[in-house]
Amino acid sequence: IAGITQAPTSQILAAGRRMTLRCTQDMRHNAMYWYRQDLGLGLRLIHYSNTAGTTGKGEVPDGYSVSRANTDDFPLTLASAVPSQTSVYFCASSDREGRYTFGSGTRLTVV
Amino acid sequence: AQKVTQAQTEISVVEKEDVTLDCVYETRDTTYYLFWYKQPPSGELVFLIRRNSFDEQNEISGRYSWNFQKSTSSFNFTITASQVVDSAVYFCALSEAGVWNQGGKLIFGQGTELSVKP
Question: Fewer CB near the terminus (10 Å): N or C of chain A?
């Protein structure tokens, strides 16, 4: 089934640890995105990538980094996790006609 | 800057009532897209509709209808004869209509939590 795969589904992480959230798509979409969802704030853009080899900062990029080595993969890394990064993380992609596909989300708890 | 506002944080209705979810947006773009997504308790984001800024026709899909008014920068969503299965968080979102393969970022509203009681 075409779409976006995120891993892990959920994770409890000790503060200060490094963590990479994985995102893989099989639709050959150029653009990919990472959002975090927090109660009362909706989804906020962390980082995006217009195409392989390029990335950009979204609304809330601090504490996160991304890479886009190829079209399919767009991992999100927390170098040193803090409790305020407890959230649900969604990866998404869009095609050239502006249709978005979202992953199922990763629920991350930093303790 | 682009912004989407969903002023209703929570709405509670009794089954079979009609309910309207409000969405107001801000953008300087002349061409843009508006979206509605549903997030049921299971957590996934379910696409409901996308509307081009040039198309102000209202749309109806079963019990769902959307009213797009550029004059008031609003894109409201109405559920007719609500059902318990409609209980979810609903998000309105806005996207610039640029060159999609260069990335058109979605800007989300805060979401409205709809509770439909039997």
Answer: N
Distance CA B47, CA A104 (A): 13
Residue B99 pLDDT greater than 60, yes or no: no
The reply to whether omega before B40 is within 30° of 0 (cis) is no
Nearest residue in A to B91, CA atom = A42
A34 at B interface, C-beta within 8 A = no
Q: How confident is the model at residue B26 (pLDDT cuts 50, 70, 90)?
A: very high
Give percent above pLDDT 90 in chain A: 86
Chain B hits for A99, CB-CB cut-off 8 Å, are 50
Q: Say if residues B117 and B50 touch (Cβ distance below 8 Å).
A: no
Q: Among partner residues A42, A97, A105, which is closest to B91 by beta-carbon distance?
A: A42
Residue B37 contacts residue B90 (beta carbons within 8 Å): yes
B38-86 pLDDT, tens digit each: 999 999 999 999 988 888 888 888 999 999 999 999 999 999 999 999 9
* B109, B91 Cβ separation under 8 angstroms: yes
B35 interaction partners in chain A (CB closer than 8 Å): 100
pLDDT score of B16 more than 60: yes
**CA nearest to A75, candidates A46, A99, A96:** A46
Q: How far apart are CA B35 and CA B27, in angstroms?
A: 14
Token pair in block for residue B73: 């920068």
- Diameter over CA atoms, chain A: 40
